[in-house]
Design goal:
The protein is an all-alpha fold. The protein folds into two domains: about 60 residues; about 70 residues, no CATH class. Helix content is about 65%, strand content about 0%. The chain contains nine helices and no strands. Helix 1 crosses helix 2 and helix 2 crosses helix 3. The radius of gyration is 30 Å and the shape is elongated. It starts with 18 loop residues before the first helix and ends in a 6-residue tail after the last helix.
Amino acid sequence: MSTIKKGRGRPPGTGLNDDPTLRKVADVLLANPRMKPTTAMARVLDRPGPSTVRRLQGKWRVKGTTCLAEAEARRAAEREAHRRPPEAPLRRQPVEPFWASRELGTALAAFNIPAIKAMQAFDSPTMHVIRELLDSGTMRVLQEIMANPAMRTLQEEMARSLTLSKQFNLPKF
């Protein structure tokens, strides 16, 4: 006869993988430190049932601290990825291609004016920052957005509506 008594009900553990949900809950809690875990679970899930909330609460008690530590590590890695390393040198680009590529630049370069020559040779920390800004990824993204055909269409429609409002003397908003 066996002396081991078998427990009643379901065995512990559902076998469901709730790790992605717990990671999202940790991200929400990291963004809102005063929020309770159950409230974060309700925000992450769309209309969670009481059994789902209880299951997640049990798993959060076990894995919550590790999920928060992983979320903090992910957040720190994202912050580091967006930072420019301090040892990266500033790229100095010659000013001549800029002047030669623009119509105004070529017209002004045709004049042999000392002020124009001084502007071309001007080299200061401010100019370095401006060059760095123009070479940044954000400016590239903005240029791509502005070159998007949908943006061009939007600009044309805005110009057309402005022309129509001037023709019909509509009030400006």
